[in-house]
Amino acid sequence: MGLRQLIAGLLVAASLYPGCSKEPESQAALKNNSSSPISVYFAPCKPDDRDGIDDKLAEFVSSAKQSIDAACYDIDLENVTDAIINAHKTGKKVRIVTDSDSINQQIKRLREAGVAVVEDNRKGLMHNKFCIVDSKEVWTGSFNWTANCAYKNDNNAVVVRAEGVAKNYLDEFEEMFSGVFGKGEPTKNPVVKIDDIVVESYFAPEDNVAELLEKKIRKAEKSIRFMMYRFTNNELAFAMVGRKIPVYGIIEEQQHTKGTWAIFSYAGGRKDVTVTLDSNPRMMHHKVIVFDDEIVVTGSYNLSKSAEEKNDENALVIRHRETAGKFVKEYERLSGGQEAEQSDD
Questions:
Q1: What is the greatest pairwise CA distance in the chain?
Q2: What is the DSSP code string of 200-256?
Q3: What are the distances in angstroms from CA 16 to CA 116, 268, 294, 337, 339?
């Protein structure tokens, strides 16, 4: 009997081992260098934290000297809206793309202020959460521009300062702003080198992201860690457990499915495969994979059929040990040290 046939009879989940969760490090503790090409931020933060992820986004928007092009699935943060409106009032070119199911008071404020806003008006989601400043810098990650994502949910955001990366995101933005949602043109030059850092940017559904991620899974040599809000792609789950290297993962409790969960539960006989459900009473909203503690994948892309085939999504791949290390620490925070406990058995 093959593995896939055996999994069919094991769809009842194994015992759950939710890890404990501490608050993330302060943004200052992350030691981001403004002159570095990459900065990383995590949530949740406290509403009165002047160094929180929402304030960092407002600062990023306010840093624009010429233009702001943002694709945001949802926005209800007043300080971010204020920053966008102020940029518009001070002569910057400001354009917004959003999901038509997320129209709220802040979007109305933007329109009333004269900011150009385009909705997707379709069944699939415009699920991106990225912003391009001056065609040179990109903000992206799992972080929706909302109070819940800033103050309650586990999230991440990454800033990349590189014109080649910004161009890829701007090309995708231009498609959507012109009304082309869903499958557009594939990314022409997805790989950009910044000194010793390699950054790849891909967009769904046009870039076949799942296939690209499966190739990276099969190339992993030492370990795979993931923090995934929604993981329903069984092919990627099979690819992970088939690698015969340590696999550590956290899946959002409200979003896990029996099929994918059973694949990891069946492989749980191996001490080097530990996949648990998150313990945040709100949401673990990351969409992150770390390969070999050196390559990190983040963005809006969940490991799901909708992300691959229907939604407008982005996936950012960064080969940089320092950046990947920050995500490993975030995994350790959310897992409560479970990885270390398992490896000691």
A1: 67
A2: EEEEETTT-HHHHHHHHHHH--S-EEEEES-B--HHHHHHHHTT-S-EEEEE-TTT-
A3: 47, 11, 29, 15, 14
Residue 259 has pLDDT above 70, yes or no: yes
pLDDT in tens, 125-140: 999 999 999 999 999 9
pTM above 0.70, yes or no: yes
Asked whether residue 122 carries a pLDDT value surpassing 80, the answer given is yes
Give the end-to-end CA distance of the chain in Å, rounded to a whole number: 30
* Sequence letter at residue 324: A
The residue range of the domain holding 185 is 3-344
List pLDDT tens digits, range 169-182: 999 999 999 999 99
At 295, which CATH number? Answer: 3.30.870.10
Q: Is the CB of residue 56 less than 8 Å from the CB of residue 157? A: yes
Question: What is the spatial distance between Cα 84 and Cα 88, in angstroms, rounded to a whole number?
Answer: 6
Cβ 315 vs Cβ 140: under 8 Å: no
- Gap between the Cα atoms of 159 and 145, Å rounded: 15
Angle at 161 between CA 156 and CA 162, to 5 degrees: 125
Number of domains in the chain: 1
Answer yes or no: are the C-beta atoms of 138 and 196 closer than 8 Å: no
